[in-house]
Design a protein that fits this description.
The complex is a heterodimer of chains A (about 200) and B (about 170). Chain A has about 200 residues and is mainly alpha-helical. Chain A has a domain of about 110 residues. Chain A is about 75% helix and about 0% strand. Chain B is globular and about 55 Å long. The chains are: A mainly alpha (about 200), B mainly alpha (about 170). Chains A and B meet through helix 2, helix 4, helix 5, helix 6 and helix 7 of A and helix 1, helix 2, helix 3, helix 4 and helix 5 of B.
Chain lengths: ~200, ~170
């Protein structure tokens, strides 16, 4: 919390300005988000807290981080925490931000897991869990449809969506195989190419 | 050794989780249920459901899988395995990311991987439905939750709790 210097002191770089954010403040902010964001909407909460409310990052670097998080493996919420923590305070910032994001929920879920271990066989409990599970399917489906709006509306990407779905969901092919074949193929399809790219007879 | 096995399985899943947690659910079930027999399909579904009741990123339930297999050390191994490899990769790439802001590779990856991600998420949803939907009542609960979430902005945890309440009332 070193706020001695007035904000308009000098046109400093983003990094220099950001380096004043203390590790404790990063931990508190990400920990609060980790403890209060529900149902997969973590990224929206992150933007609200770090860009809109605190101004630690601007929108452009937030979006750049989101692109990175989506391309790389891992959950958007934790990848974004790593990215934003890194921007704010380097390696230690990344570590503290991701611990803050993960630990509160991990403690809660472990508590539930221990209860489940003890009580999971009771009929009432399995009734509740059955309903929770069915609702979770609804949540997962709705989230997928919302995120995929654009992909499901465009014919070329719809074909890719269905091919991936059939390969993994119906044929039960290994994810390694699917990611190493369909992944590069799909990236190749979307490679920006010159109007007359000889040989590449991809559908347009 | 069991702990190393847990660490290995979840590290593999971490690196394969292109498109996030839901996308890797089929592979997670294949490994933890079919290959290593750590859980029954039913337990897998129930543990995933539990995870929806907790705040934060939605795959923290991997800790419960680890816990069932090997107690608290197992929980820690699952968490470290699932979050560390992808985290380290993101950290490494984040440091050089801005240098390649206009590279065609980045654009193509972003646009090309999106449909694959959605396909994987749909497959994850299907696998999940297979393991937790057992009756017509369950189908109704899932359909109602989907419809509400697509129609209005509401905190999903309320619907998850509502589903639990409905399950309790139907079950008793």
């Amino acid at each position: 919390m070193s706020e001695e210097e007035p904000a308009e002191a000098a046109p400093e770089s983003e990094i220099a300005k950001a380096s004043r954010v203390s590790l404790a403040a990063i931990l508190a902010t990400f920990g609060l988000l980790g403890a209060t964001s529900f149902g997969g909407g973590v990224v929206a909460y992150l933007r609200q807290a770090l860009v809109t409310r605190r101004g630690w990052l601007d929108d452009a670097s937030f979006l750049s981080g989101l692109e990175l998080s989506q391309i790389l493996p891992g959950l958007n919420a934790t990848n974004m925490s790593v990215y934003m923590g890194e921007r704010l305070r380097g390696a230690r910032g990344a570590l503290v931000a991701s611990l803050g994001m993960i630990l509160p929920g991990a403690v809660v879920v472990m508590g539930l897991g221990i209860l489940y271990q003890r009580l999971g066989q009771l009929p009432d409990v399995s009734g509740v869990l059955g309903g929770v599970g069915a609702a979770a399917v609804g949540l997962t489906l709705a989230t997928t449809l919302q995120i995929g709006q654009r992909q499901l509306a465009d014919l070329r990407s719809l074909v890719l969506v269905l091919a991936t779905f059939v390969a993994v969901g119906l044929l039960h092919l290994s994810l390694v195989i699917v990611l190493t074949t369909l992944g590069p193929f799909s990236v190749w399809l979307y490679w920006p190419r010159k109007p007359a790219a000889g040989g590449a007879k991809a559908s347009t | 050794m069991l702990l190393l096995q847990i660490l290995g399985v979840f590290s593999l899943l971490s690196i394969l989780a292109v498109g996030g947690g839901t996308a890797v659910l089929p592979e997670m079930k294949a490994l933890t249920v079919n290959q290593f027999h750590w859980l029954t399909p039913e337990q897998f579904g129930q543990i995933y459901s539990l995870g929806q009741l907790a705040p934060g990123p939605n795959m923290l339930m991997v800790s419960v899988i680890g816990y069932r297999v090997a107690g608290y050390p197992g929980a820690a191994a699952a968490l470290v395995g699932f979050f560390l490899p992808a985290g380290l990769l993101t950290f490494g790439v984040a440091r050089v990311w801005d240098r390649y802001s206009d590279s065609p590779l980045k654009r193509a990856c972003e646009r090309g991987l999106a449909p694959v991600t959605i396909g994987l998420m749909l497959a994850g949803t299907l696998i999940l439905a297979h393991t937790v939907i057992h009756s017509a009542d369950d189908v109704v609960i899932a359909a109602v939750v989907t419809a509400i979430l697509l129609a209005v902005k509401i905190n999903p945890v309320l619907l998850i709790l509502g589903g639990g309440l409905a399950g309790y009332l139907i079950g008793s």
